[in-house]
Amino acid sequence: MNIYEKLLYIQQNLKAPKGQYSEFGNYKYRSYEDIQEALKPLLNECRAVLLLTDDIKLIGDRFYVMATAILQDVESNERITNTAYARETDSRPKMEAAQITGSCSSYARKYALNGLFCIDDTKGADASGSKQVKQQNGAAGKKEPGTEQKAAGKKGSETQQKAEGEKPINSKQAAAIRKEIKRTGAKEEAVCYQYKIKSLSEMNQVQYNDAMDIFHSMKDGIQDNAAAAG
């Protein structure tokens, strides 16, 4: 088999079930590590190897992690590549800078693998609307994402913005979160667990905006909707 025949065989036989579960969004998803494990026996069978690399790209005023997935034929050294991008968030409470980059790398690698091996992940964690990282899927053949439009009305320094984001939510915002919890059938303790807080009163502005983005993508009574689990 040539490299394209091997890729076709892997695409047709790859089984990578969604073995991870999000209590917050009430859906199942797969990680890029899950995909790697599912690929190993097929790569061995086809005499091919999978290589993953990361590069940091400055596009506009934001940093992106560009992940490249490479399927290389051991017998002929032919290769097929696919790239995907994930944008680093400005800040994420309780995470070190290296952890933010690592999280972006995982997202980018996952979508590079999805594109290369034709894995449908439309109902995974990213489809829920989470804004913690913004993935830019790369089609096979490498597609550069467009420059991000700068947010209108951006003011103050990054330090000031970070301080604003760390301010606790007010009672009106807490009520809005509880309203969405009731509408979707989510659990308040699951929301708190997601953001590593003891109660909603400890939630900050960054976490609030992220949570509301997720809720706005969720259907009413999602716990009773089996399709929402993916």
Quick tags:
6 strands, four-stranded antiparallel beta sheet, disordered C terminus, single chain, two-stranded antiparallel ribbon
What does this protein structure show overall?
This protein has 230 residues and is α+β, with helices and mostly antiparallel strands. The chain has seven helices and six strands. The strands form two sheets. The protein has a four-stranded antiparallel beta sheet with strand order 3-4-5-6. The chain has a two-stranded antiparallel ribbon with strand order 1-2. Helix 1 (3-13) crosses helix 2. The relative contact order is 0.15.
Q: Which strand order spans the largest sheet, edge to edge or round the barrel? A: 3-4-5-6
Q: Largest sheet, if any?
A: 4 strands, antiparallel
Count of extended strands? 6
The multimeric state of the shown protein is single chain
Rounded to the nearest angstrom, the radius of gyration is 20 Å
Mean pLDDT: 77
- Given as residue ranges, the uncertain stretches (5+ residues, pLDDT < 50) are 123-144, 146-155, 222-230
Strand content: 15-25%
Quickly give the structural class: alpha+beta
Order of helices and strands: HEEHEEEHEHHHH
Helicity level, as a percent range? 25-40%
Number of helices: 7
For the terminal residues, how far apart are their CA atoms?
Answer: 34 Å
Which outline best applies?
A: elongated
